[in-house]
Amino acid sequence: MKKLNSQKDVINFILFDRLPVRIGIMVLAFLATLAGLAVPYYQRDFMSHLTISPLLLCTGLALLSFILLQMTNFLGQREALITQKALAEKLYHHILRLKPLTTSHKTVGEMVALYTTDIPSCTMWLEQTIPYALTTAFPLILAPIFLNVVYDIPYGLTLSLILALVTVNLLLARRQSGFFYQFKILAGHRMGLVNEWIQNIKSLKSLNWVQSFESKIIKKRVEETNNRIAMVTNGQIMNSISSSVTFWLNLAVLFFIAYMHNELIGHIDLIAVMWVMGVFLSKPLRQLPWFFTMMFDAWTSIRRTGDFFSLENSPYHIDNPNLPLESDETLVVKDLNLVIQNKIVLKDINLTLKKQEVVALIGPIGSGKSVLLKSIMKETPFTAKRLDQLPHSYLPQEPFVLSGTLTENIALEYLEDETQVKETSPQAFKALQQAQFDIASDRISNGLQTVIGERGLNISGGQKQRLNLARLFYNPLPLFLLDDPFSAVDVGTEKRLIDALFTLRQDGHSFLVITQRYEFLKHCDRVIYIEQGEIKFDGLYREFIQHTKYQKFIAGDIQ
Fold first, then answer.
1. Who contacts 174 (Cβ-Cβ below 8 Å, separation ≥6)?
2. CB 298 within 8 A of CB 10
3. Taking a C-beta distance cutoff of 8 angstroms, is the pair 306, 9 a contact?
4. Contact at 8 Å (CB) between 39 and 282?
5. 544-547-549 Cα angle (round to 5)
6. Which of 56, 291, 344, 392 would staple 479 via disulfide (CB 3.0–4.6 Å)?
């Protein structure tokens, strides 16, 4: 699948992805215009002779013009849906490629708005703008030519009238698109606030901060409402102008014919001229303001979508990638450095883990412990001489819980039928036991089929943490990277979890564990102390606690 990297790529994709169909839309719109202009031409024959043949021909041409217009609109809408699907798929894969550091300045609401608002708006060029442009532009271009060639009405009159109308509608449409753009921005901000409110409602209530937070949402909603009122008012003005414009065109042409034309136009030709100005041009002139509005609105969405597609991960660099590990190694890191916004985050990290080795990673808050784990997973733009590891499992500091059954949360798979449930349940139950998640004592009413609510709102922090640990026991990989796995459990549970983890150790697994729980440090093969992004100590626990340099940290004076 070809990537989109800029606004230009998005525009090219919308306009030229299925080029034969785009050309077909243009041809249909042109033919519809020619068929529509042929009606007044043959109408003159009918008015002159009052025979059935030209009447049937006029009727057939009018019907043909209508059919071709509908086909133009149908193809445009069909292409818009196809392009929406393709754009959404490209956006989905792009978001999957992006790392948290790259999207840290983007809210959830903004990214959701790309799907719900901007992708459909981008394809308005296909659904409405291009069909409107063609079925508006061709009549507005060809009608003055037709009136000049057939009825000797000067180009200057019709073109100046049309140009004046286009200018007025362009200004109003530009203003309307500004309201649309603000609508998208405000909607994205509000969605982000509402999402944050839902995620943290329990904490907000406990902090007595609900009213203050909700007032912020309401304020954003008031801004949205005011913008919507201005948008509707401007739209009504546009509709008023477009609905009355044919009257003023007819009046201007009649004035010209009556007072300024050198030769009299017969009543038959006059009816044909009025048909062109009052009937043939009525639809193009009515849709003219909305053509401009949709064009500008689509452009703002294309710009926002293109800007998001232009986001790229800062690449990591390894001098000697994919070197083979020794038979007793699970992880080797050599001279790893990480600089973010000119700030040194990690400096000269050298680290090796052997099979069946348990290593604790400790240090003050903000020293780079979690960032080091993410760098080992190649989620940051680091540089290193070497970084090689066996397949690994990762436990984040903030546990992830999906809306599904307990079994589905452990297997990380939605189980569609009873057979899958029966096959998965025994292994899931065993993993829960190893993670010290007891269904009875943890008050899980419906066993493995208990539905865990969205974001785990109906279970405690300790249960979430043990549920995430159960996933590691369910599918144990050679290397475990654990970020503070005991922070939400009591001392007794911690001891049992350590025993369970050391059972896996006997099977050949290795552990790199961020922790501040000193009980766990006693069981580790090594302790690594990191401060300000540098490894200051790498050795035995008993040597660490006896070292005078680290007594302040051990006493809790360094956080």
1. 292, 296
2. no
3. yes
4. no
5. 115
6. 392
Q: Quick count: other Cβ atoms within 10 Å of Cβ 406?
A: 24
Cα–Cα dist 421/141, whole Å:
66
Q: Measured on CA atoms in the order 89, 91, 92, 94, is the torsion positive or negative?
A: positive
**DSSP per residue, 451-498:** EEPGGGTTS-HHHHHHHHHHHHHHS--SEEEEESTTTTS-HHHHHHHH
Q: How far apart are CA 318 and CA 381, in angstroms?
A: 10
- Strand positions, DSSP E, 377-469: 383-384, 386-389, 392-395, 404-405, 451-452
The burial of 339, by beta-carbon neighbours within 10 Å (0-12 exposed, 13-18 middle, 19 or more buried), is given as: middle
With b meaning 16 or more CB within 10 Å and e meaning fewer, what string describes 362-377? bbbeebbbebbbbbbe
Short-list 391, 373, 381, 380, CA closest to 333: 373
Q: What is the mean pLDDT of the chain?
A: 81
The two tokens of residue 199 are 């995620």
Asked if 26 contacts 126 with a C-beta cutoff of 8 angstroms, the reply is: no
- Residues with Cβ within 8 Å of residue 495, at least 6 apart in sequence: 519
Contact between residue 231 and residue 176 where contact means Cβ atoms under 8 Å apart: yes
Report, as an integer, the average pLDDT of 83-93.
90
Inter-residue contact 386 to 332 (CB < 8 Å): yes
Question: By C-alpha distance, which of 108, 112, 116, 117 is closest to 200?
Answer: 108
Distance CA 371, CA 375 (A): 6
- Amino acid (1-letter code) at residue 53: S
pTM higher than the cut 0.85: no
The 10s digit of each residue's pLDDT in 472-518 is: 999 899 999 999 988 888 888 888 888 888 888 988 999 999 988 88
Q: What angle do CA 261, 148, 169 make, to 5 degrees?
A: 95
Residue 173's alpha-carbon distances to 184, 295, 299, 422, 480, in angstroms, are 16, 9, 13, 60, 58
Say how far residue 382 (Cα) sits from the centre of its chain: 26
The β-bridge partners of 336 are 349
Contact 122, 14 (CB under 8 A): yes
Tell me if 194 sits within 8 A of 224, measured CB to CB: no
What one-letter code names the amino acid at 481? L
